[in-house]
Amino acid sequence: MTSRWNRSRGKTAIAVCAAGALALSGCSGGSSSSATAGASQSSATDSTGATSSSSSSASDTSTPLPKVKLQVMIGSSGAAETDAVKAATAAWSAKTGSTVEVIAAADLGQQLGQGFAGGTPPDVFYTDASRIGDFAKAGDLFAYGDQINAGDFLPNLVQAFTSGGKLQCAPKDYSTLALIINQDLWTKAGLTDADIPTDWAGLETVAKKLTSGSVTGLVIGNDINRSGAFMKQAGGWVVSADGTKVTADTPENLAGLQEVQKMMKAGTLKFNTDTSPAAGWGGEAFGKGIGAMTIEGNWIRGALTKDYPKINAKVVELPAGPKGKGTLLFSNCWGIAAKSPNQAQAVDLVKFLTSLDQQLAFTKAFGVMPSTTAGAAKFATLYPKDAAFAKGGAYGQGPVNLAGFDPVMAAFNSKLATLGKGGDPKAMLVQLQKDGDAALAGG
Length: 443
Description:
This protein is an alpha/beta fold. The protein is built from 17 helices and 13 strands. It has helices at about 20-25, 80-95, 110-120, 130-135, 155-160, 185-190, 200-210, 225-235, 250-265, 280-285, 300-305, 345-355, 355-365, 375-380, 385-390, 405-415, 425-440, and strands at about 70-75, 100-105, 125-130, 160-165, 165, 170-180, 215-220, 270, 290-295, 315, 325-335, 370, 395. Helix 2 (about 80-95) packs antiparallel against helix 13 (about 355-365), helix 8 (about 225-235) packs across helix 9 and helix 13 (about 355-365) crosses helix 14.
């Protein structure tokens, strides 16, 4: 699952986010489990009571494919996700006669790497959006995007999994960031729904009113996977939309980071590592009541249910910046190995797994949001309290997916973590531009 998701470098990470995303880059929508988002739903049906289907569903071939055994490797958030994937693959097996072995990896990145190196990778596997460039460059992926209906999926997800001009794999599901509000602290501060911030000025106002004593108005994670939303809202991002050039050192990106630092200087915003005591991630600060608001993905639902059931949380879209709405998007896809001898069957399985019925079944089982346009709309209808997460899919920014960028972003995040201690955002962006240009040239 899915964010380039960081809970204080993972030392106090709780097992709500899928292990695979942690292994590859953090936590993404792919298995970022809001864990119980669908628990209260008895079915995923349309208004007529009939289950819906998508044109991404498993294809009916005129000539049945040979029966094979497929191996599927996942990074799972827990038993609910593992069981759901096993149930889905069993249903496909019953239809096709092929069999599927599902492996819940202890360390997805390491185990995939070993499989690629040894020439025996799993046929199908979770792939984080940030790793697409690296895997495609290494020749590890079978780019099957031309064999599925890309138009079924959210356009931003298609872009996130496109490398070298090819859609490498089908988006599995996704997560976005939203503003999470502690309703009890909100009411105590004299705020109402009319005060829900729609722009940066409004965010500054409510954060100030919510800051009192040991409570900080807004607590967020200390890297680009949270502060990057402000950069996007200011009209910036690390790379151009087509991925051909680095665009880090711009006035827009600087404005986004300056807004974060401005609120820090006012004492109304802190990184999770700057609270007292330090929190493992923004959700922990929120759950413990030392942060009245946080910016997190839909995986926070599972954390709140499991660890902080008494917190009354409200989810709203992030406030717009000077250039409009902006959020970050995290996702995994169903990767297929270039060396798989069963690619035709693997593609057929992926079509089945990304059908609307099956994606909604995954939502019910472990809380992820469907990657298709129809599925995202259905999610917003079925789970109105989390509709803000689904809406972000229309304008969310995916992670940098260029080859060789992981160390570049890691270096930038280390510097960004000092923003609340007087770090210079301009210098950070200048260095990011320099390092990014070098990585792009080397890619």
